[in-house]
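>> received
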Amino acid sequence: MQLHQARRANLSNKKKFRVGRGPGSGVGKTAGRGIKGATSRSGYAMKVTYEGGQMPIFRRLPKRGFKNGKFRETFSVVNVGELSSFKAGSKVGPDELRDAGVLRGPTRWPVKILGEGEIKVALTVSADAFSASAIDKIQKAGGKAEWIGGAPKKPAPDFKKIEAEKKKAAKAKAPAAAEKGEKPAEGAAPAAGAEAPKAAAKPAAKPAPKPPEK
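>> returned
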């Protein structure tokens, strides 16, 4: 087949079926939409949950509340009191804890060390998370806490809160400075009840000169 032998398909330029063109066309007046109702209006779209007017299935089925389980992070928990069975100076991680039978739960769960109990041996403990009391007890025993994947990032400083605290401290310091006779710092708000410094008295205006006598 050559390019000059290509022909358009028979139905490729089929004309659009025109409705509402008088009773003689067979689809005049209501143009196939029926009489009144939502389906006769322009812009109507049937809802996915619509079931012909009967109660939709999402309303027929009972509700049993909401569970947030799939979004919750679950830890395998180990207390520092359970680490005393390890030799001093050894490195303890999830594998060592599981081999010793201390760690329970699925392997996919992250490991968290809690501060219940006492630890008297210096250990380098590796885990996904630590409580503040657990870190304190491990370090007091001469050990070290290491986060798997790096230590958590510190939250960004709240500069608005820091500025508000500075202003509050300056206001509290102003009355004490006024009692001692100290000059308040520049930009500091005046103390409550303190009198504002009086403006310097302006020199009296000179009288206008008299006109010369004739």
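>> The longest helix spans residues 159-180.
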